[in-house]
Amino acid sequence: MSSDALTIPSAAAVRQPWVETLHEWVTTVDHKRLGVMYILYALVFLVVAGSEALIIRIQLMFPHNHFVSPQVFNRMFTMHGTTMVFFVGIPVLFGFANYLVPLMIGARDMAFPRLNAFSFWLTVLGGVLLYFSFVGGNGLYGAGNAPDIGWWAYAPLTSRVFSPGQSSDFWTIALLVSGFGSIGTAINIIATTLCMRCPGMQLGRMPLFVWLNLVMSGLVLIAITPLSAAQIMLCVDRYLGGHFFDTQAGGSATLWMHFFWIFGHPEVYILILPCFAFMSEIIPVFSRKPIFGYPVMVGATVCIGFVSMSVWAHHMFSIGMSSYTNSFFTITTMAVGVPTGIKIFNWIGTMWGGKIQFKVPMLFSVAFLFQFLIAGLTGIMLGSAAFDSQLTLSYFVVAHFHYTLVGGLIFGLFGAFYYWYPKITGRMLSETLGKVHFWLFLIGFHLTFDLMHVPGLLGMPRRIYTYEPRPGWATLNLLISIGGFIQGIAVLIFVWNLIFSYFKGPKAGNDPWDAWTLEWSVSSPPPVYNFASIPTVASRRPLWDLKHPEDPDSLYE
Amino acid sequence: MSAITTPLPQTPGIWTLPYRGKVGMACLIIAESAIFTIFVVAYLYYMGKSLAGPTPREVLETPIFYTVCLLSSSLTVHQAAKFLRSGRRGAFLTLWFLTIVLGSLFLFGTGQEWHRLIYEHGLTISTNLFGTTYYSLVGLHASHVTAGLLMLTVVLLFGLAGRVGPDQSARVETLALYWHFVDVVWVVVFTVVYVLGR
Q1: Cβ A535–B136 below 8 Å, yes or no?
Q2: pLDDT tens digit string along A78-100?
């Protein structure tokens, strides 16, 4: 109590003017504040891109609907895809990595704090540029506003003839700029992980979260850069009259496809590896067991990193590659399922025989396991060239990748929010609201994306603004849209929970989940300097060692 | 609250970690290599696919002298960093300056070649596929040389002001790493454009 009396006149008690608070946040180089800003930025875009998805779904609710024009529909699915991948997925995962990696390895900040801030503001600039296209995309030509080229932006759609005005340029520059931001953050995460670990934190003792983010950052270095290169080429084509993707002058549209998917497929793993990272922290804690098969998990992660670089052309089976190429990419696609299967096996092995606590983070994690497995199975189906020729560009593909990204990534992300929110804010999220959020989102998700496979099998193509009332299509699409709205309501409940609990949630304390990694050893929220004295670790679960000095992990590792 | 943050009693022997600057630079080099790879692939893919002239065989001349300049600047920058580590500032500054001169000579050579191609042969970036891929690839490299020269010059200015000593040798070596990368990329670009491409 006496120490409380001493802290009253400190900075916390004196409210500073909001301008100064704002100035502090804008100029900060602190990894925790940048992490929080990344996450908030991504949440804003999650709501924006989610609304775009709902516009798409309203338009597709009934056959021959006229809610939006075909042109607006094209802009909506382009902006939805681009935003979700580049301005929701990547920033939110970088936010968690930024916040947690230094805390987990016992460091006081990232290796390059200013580069960190620079990368964040580049990402912000990218998002602003993309959405500025709604206003400035008309350009001098008075044609179009937001980009309507799809998130793949296949040539020749991006040529001056088909994309007059500036909308495609905003798209190109936005991705180029935010790509540079991503590369900066990836460099930072790798340098932090390799050079800033506290004494005793050998590579083999790092939490799996750090390992997965390390591999993710490595993938960012070699996968985002091809996209940047391709965007530079596109700029050369559009502004300097180059012929890279100009088929009239001997250029090749297929080359753009290759360049895009050399980025595009590893990108999927860039998004899902941090989600695996969340799972590898949440599942052991709520099963009350250490992770099953740590070295194999690390090996499988590195293996996914390598194999994912050689599967890109399975997005292009229908363009007429040679049968050898098709076979090669079918085989590599099947192969990437093996390390992923090992991971799912190990998470189940972690739960097996554990004292499982079904708190909200664990609920999302268990749902993730089921859904990601199904997403993986449809992935194997689409990875087979013969089957893919039948289903490519249909709603089956849309259902498949939304199963991985919503059923996998978003579920894992929600789990991570419920798990680390107490650390970031010092308050617990409401369990009751959390359970309502979970069940509503689960029902909405399955209604939408389970059913979406069926119109795909029936032959409904993707990216069409309306459809004929064929048998079953109308009912299925109506149900899919209703599921979308249920998910929307669930997300609103989640956002309300985030705001409400920030003010009214119960105090969390340092370690609400009785967890084992270093971030739980400091106060919630952590002090600016993270650790008063740099800790020393002797095992993979330093807090277990602290709490159980009679039986520390270090004796067995 | 502070009880739980107390470090564990056990302390390991010596705890050394790699220098973050070099790790960061290595990562940047990996990322840049991927960018160059895409441009090189595009160059190779479009080799001989131009629908109109001029072709590389007609207009390109192998820049032997300027290549020697750039490659030898790798040696001087390496030696300069070595001198700095052993505290010989004068030798460091001389070789560092020589590196900048050699790099600038190379850039001058590129400029001269472009001038000749544009004014004598009428080859611009929009003339044909060869022009597009050639100017993009060589230009991407030249822009990296320019960035490197700017950074080298900053270090030279600080050096002339007496602010660069053996304490900074790790940073100087990090920059030297980037310069080596620029040189290695030129070996690849040279092979692709002037050997395979003609």
Answers
A1: no
A2: 999 999 999 999 999 999 999 99
